[in-house]
Amino acid sequence: MEEVDRIFHKRPDSLKKRNEIIKNADHPVDMEINGFLAAAEDGDLKAQHQLALIYIQGEAVPQNFAEAEKWLRKASEADHLPSKRELGILIASGSVKGKYETEAYDLLIGPLDRLDPRSVYYLALMYENGKGVEKDILNSIRLYGIAASLGYPGAEEDYARVEKAYTEERHAILRSMPLLNLEISEDGIEAACCKKMFDVIVTGDIFFIDSYKGPALGGMDEDGRDIVLNACPFCSAPVRVIEKKK
Ligand SMILES: [Zn+2]
Description:
Blueprint (H helix, E strand, L loop, with lengths): L1 H7 L4 H11 L5 H13 L3 H13 L7 H13 L3 H12 L10 H11 L3 H13 L7 H13 L5 H22 L5 E4 L2 E4 L3 H9 L3 E5 L2 E7 L5 E4 L9 E3 L5
Parallel strand pairs: 1-6
Antiparallel strand pairs: 1-2, 3-4, 4-5
Helix pairs in contact: 3-4, 4-5, 5-6, 6-7, 7-8, 8-9, 9-10
The structure holds zinc ion.
The site of zinc ion has 7 residues, from loops.
């Protein structure tokens, strides 16, 4: 949990830069804050967002999540995307209490449609840990993968970490099952039909596909093209889709 909180509280470089500018400013910091405050009170969305970031960072002023929340909520009401994202992260991290159970999810899921890497990454974290959303490891892996492909720092390592743990867990389940039926569920491959099939699943040559059509089993044909398997190529056992085991 501590590790999760640490990740949640990671702050972007842009904010560091912002604070350096403030620190190195020729005029007093107070004036800089007051400038943002005046603009924020005038309804300037960017100023409201910046002011909130300054309160979150807590370097130029003492850290104050309540003040940050106040300004982020104002800007979010006007659909300011970076503010919605920041507010979602504050709630997901527990620094600020959401107005309802899934508020963090709702704030972050919007930007996901527009593929904001940071929002995608935090959603992956939420799915991994079951924070503000039902725990869903496959979804978490998928989202870490998207965040990594968008270049979000650290996402690739998280993807590899969660994917490895998931794969090991699935292999342990397979090992505990008799070699009898070829079964898959929404969670992955539940049982193998024969030793040969077990071996190719462990090596990854035949693998689980979480497709929009539902769970499936994938592999390659002789020409190296991806195919969906309906039956075991070794013993001809049919692929059966079953309910999640848990
Ligand atoms: Zn088989």
